[in-house]
# Entry
Amino acid sequence: MSAVGRSVRRLEDPRLLRGAGRFVDDVDRPGQVWMRVVRSSSAHGRLLGVDADAARELPGVRAVLTAADLQPVPRIPVRLGPFDEPLDDFLQPVLAAGAVRYVGEPVAVVVADDPYVAEDAAELVVAELEPLPVVLDAARAVADDAPALHGAGNEVTTLVRAYGDVDDAFQRAAHVIEVEVDVGRHTAVPLETRGLVADYDATLDRLVLWGATKVPHFNRGALARMLGMDERSIAIRSCDAGGGFGVRGELYPEDFLVAFLARRLARPVKWIEDRAEHLVATNHSRQQRRRLAGAFAQEGELLGLRETLWHDNGAYVRTHGVVVPELTLSMLPGPYRVAAYAGRAHVALTNKTPCGTYRGPGRYEATFARERLLDAAAAELHLDRVALRRRNLLEAADLPHHRALPVLGHDVEIDVGDFPSLLDTTLERAGFEAWRREAREQRAAGRSVGVGLAWFLEKSGGGGFERARVDVDVRGRVRVAGGGTSLGQGIETALAQIAADELGVEVPDVDVVLGDTELVSSGVGSWASRSTIFSGGAVRLAARATGELARRVAGELLEAAAEDVALRDGAAVVAGSPQHRVPLGEIAAACDPANAARRGDDPGLGAARTYVDAPMTYPYGVHLAQVEVDGETGGVRVLRYFIGYEVGRAINPALVEGQLVGGAAQGLGGALMEEFRYDAEGQPQCTSFMDYLVPSAAEVPPIGTAIAQDAPSPGNPLGVKGAGEGGVDGAGAAIASAVEDALGISGAISALPITPERVRALAAAAPAGSLPVSAGR
Amino acid sequence: MSDVHLISLVVNGTRHEVAVEPRRTLADVLRHDLGYTGTHVGCEHGICGACTVLLDGEPCRSCLIFGVQADDTAVETVEGLAQEGKLNPLQEAFTEHHALQCGFCTPGFLMLATALLRENPAPSDDEIREAMASNICRCTGYQSILEAVRAAADAAGEAHRE
# Structure
């Protein structure tokens, strides 16, 4: 039976359930020393000097490093385009030089024999600062009289993305609806913080790094350039990773510093971020304010969209460049037929932690804005919210659908789909009409219960390549070494399923090693929901080539034609003659170097292949929510939640469901709880889990899913579309829609997260008696 | 720092003696002094629960306990759950119900659930949810964890009746 398409058990589980995974803090090297980062305690100031004398004198301290020790101070390079924007003036130095621009910015690093001593010593380092005025709001930051963070100002760029005749659309409109919306500042909060271990062999000038999980090959190349090393002298070994979600594994200042110090001290150096650091040092995301206008015809047809947004990128541009605001613009029209669109994004820097991507970058934000607009239009035009969306969804005749909006270097080209049928399926499977009825009854009974929905368009893969090598050993075990990295998503299992089918073995017979630059010479990494497409594509090719070799060699061993040999149950079998079989391990043994050379082959039963150039594919889906609002406490309880998602083809449906449900939980956090707040001086107010609130089992309801496989991607042979981000994309919008329905106040919800304070303010402003206090559950 | 104390503790049935500074956390003692790296540290301030171990049978945050406080105690960690190389029924239920993704929080949830099911072998769904709400998972959305604990409780109940 084919492994692909089945919810087979995960290969990753046995080691993780035994506590036998290897996370970066589980890696220790003989003679290692520990790094601790001294961080700015001020949001903006001229850095006059760093006094590290007391720290240097503390017993056990090996070194203290400041920008003065690094001349010139390297800056963190941009990994993702658009590359036509000049960004160099805004890149982050690995240690602050001349000025500090956010609380948490690395000012110095201390290295000591023991992590406790390193932390003691870091406390003794004093940065001499002359305070400068702060700017904390993106729209304020781009004003002429705002305090400037950089010599080049605060506005990194203004991105303009447009197609069609927007002016004409608005002139023809019977209704123009406008909303102003804010999305708060969130971050991914993987449960494992970041970390890195570097071991250096001075004799060979060879550096080995553990813990850089996501884009190891990019990080290797960037570090080689920054350190002035030969890329081939650096090896990166991925570890198990406690969640990624976009923020982990990018090249951060600490990654350079650990590698640099290992080389300078000729000792292994270890750095493990603590949670308080993580919340100010690891990429933030999401924070945007925007004004969005929709031009609608009399009956609700969406004619055009026009938006201006202010993207708050924090104090610097990091590896993601300006891709998040670009994605926000390019994904704004979403799953709808929109004849004309014009968007403008002011990319602003503020005295806050720098930003990058977080699961569903640009989609969470754009979906919130667009779906808020559609709810506002439905109310204004007296149309049903579902019907308004159905009227405007792309239909079969519209596909493929091109938009002159760039996403990672290519225009949006929505490849395939059946949007209306996914809507029907999802509403029916969830029982949405019953949710609605129940909400009406509850409201009549005095409780604030409401339902909401949000449609979204997702993107997946697109561009680049991935390599894989498949080998069978003499025991018949299969090893897959591939690009892409394991971040908890179950990619090892999915790749094993693909390889198992090609080679006629069972999934547990396959071992998967990912993210090791020694085993796979080049790769692009795990981001943008691309790994199943690209790594899966490469594994399929490599396993297929391995299978062809196995059949050819087995044919020689069995004196049969290769085309008469099939692979099944771990062996090569002659068609019509099942007693003529040879196990894969014996075929591998016959591929020893001498015999292989006599046949003109490379040694071993295996093959390496590269999969390249799958076009971007566009999954899509709809989120449904039912919530109850407590007008007195301002609390929002999510009663029911359901996601319909078109994934093309599910290699492992349980993994897809896990991605959707887990993503939704993160999205609910962003919708209701999570927000980085700052005081007027730019001091972060959320530096622990007591202030940055992530959902627990008490807040997340059961989440149902309908996983559709009706529209396989035509652009890759597996037909797959990414599954990693659709769970988060629509969550903010769907919850907002449901809360507004519960409150019965159109236009009430314009900002995420919908905190108790915001709900109470709405309740206070509502007419007396219109907002009942919940009886509780 | 030369203020070092010799402590003695039993971890998963094995006695260890270790010299620790007073400020060294139990999590660091377990992980870095004794090599029980299955216990994970996610926040170091007692919220996330990834470091949950059982201390004399009670679930505790090993990041909030000093090693010296664990002197003369019995500690159970995730490494002690599998018996004779086989996953125990709770661990089996976790993999069966897809109750882990990255696996970083998993040891903490396993120990928390172990304590719950010992104290209350037949918990209601609400009791399971309330107990599991002590820890944070950022990958799964929790439902599969609750289902796994439910399944483990039900299976143990059936085995008991038989």
Summary: Residues 89-161 of chain B form a domain with the DNA polymerase; domain 1 fold (CATH 1.10.150.120). The mean pLDDT of chain B is 97. Chain B has two domains: 5-80, 89-161. Chain B touches chain A through 56 residues (CB under 8 Å).
